[in-house]
Amino acid sequence: MYTLSRRNFLNRAGALTAAALVPKVAQAARSTQVNTRGFFTIAKRNGRWWLVTPEGKRFFSIGINHIDSATLRYTENSHIWRDKYGNSMQKWLKQVREDLRDWGFNTVGWVQEVVTREVMNHRHSRNFTYEEYQWLDMPYCHMLPFVDFHQWEVETINPDFHSKGFEQWCDYVARAHCGRLVDDSKLIGYFYCDCPTWVHIRKDNKWKGPLFDPAKLKSEAGRKELKELAGQYYKVTHDAIRRYDKNHLIFGDRYEANAPLPEEVVRAALPYVDILSFQCFGNADVVNEKLGYWGKLTDRPVLLADSAGGTKAHDPGGPDEHRYPNPDVYGEVMRVLRDMPQCIGFHLCGAYLANRVRRRGLRNEKDKIHAEAIDRFTKVNRETSRWMRE
After folding, report:
1. Fewer CB within 10 A of the terminal residue: the chain, N end or C end?
2. pTM of the entire structure?
3. In the prediction, which pLDDT does 387 show?
């Protein structure tokens, strides 16, 4: 796989040196929102980027991803769903809200969960409805299904951004989703694609290849072509959202920070998104290098939208097994992000409930928590909330 020689040089030089060597991308003076009154927005205060609540208070998003109740409806444990929650999503989401608030989380990130991970069948659960977000009653982000060129997606062909059909689909998605969420002050903003394969692929989706041939990046004409292609994509999606929702932030794609990512793609996105979002798995040093690079380069708000360094396990074997993200790495990463002036939040790759595919969660499939682990996550989150208020 071809990678930019410039990028290789920057990686060798180190993130701090890189930021000094590369000219900064021009920063937007304001968000893409037409209306910010009564909604989450962004602001730079005393040299640091923050989310800002509808009440005008600074906000660092402490989120959790992957929240799916179907884990409680296996044949062996469905009695929990019936007896404890009465087959009620509303009642279950009340429990989710109480848990997340008790554990120090202030945001729900991406709710969809991995439900099958086979070679030619890798899918996620459905999104939440407007009504479910109201029952949840917490700040949240919502993913819009404009495209399916996620790095884990193995079934769908790559889209044609210049086609009439793509524009029609984006209009439908925005009409169906944003048209209902437009007035919700709890919604922070919208994600697009989860780890888009602009110039990289995974072994299971070799058949369709990356969206853009990385060999073309060796020429000026090729780099210009990629920037134009990405610009078309971000313009069509942005315009579709703003047709139906002028109020909420746009997070755009959740880039894979540990895969090749040409600057042309990010530069093309900047006029049409408010925050640069990244998945970045690894320890604190990896996150500091990868996320810090893009934060320093652009001086735009960045979100660690999905990350979990390592997994802890207790009671191995069957439904009693309890595997969860490593709270030590979580704390180390959070401290790095608090020192990164462009970072506006960290969303933990949970999940809330461990199913039999991901097999990792803060509750297991018997709906039990591991108290010692939860206490450690809670401590980190409360430290971060105190820092946010200082």
Report:
1. C
2. 0.89
3. 98
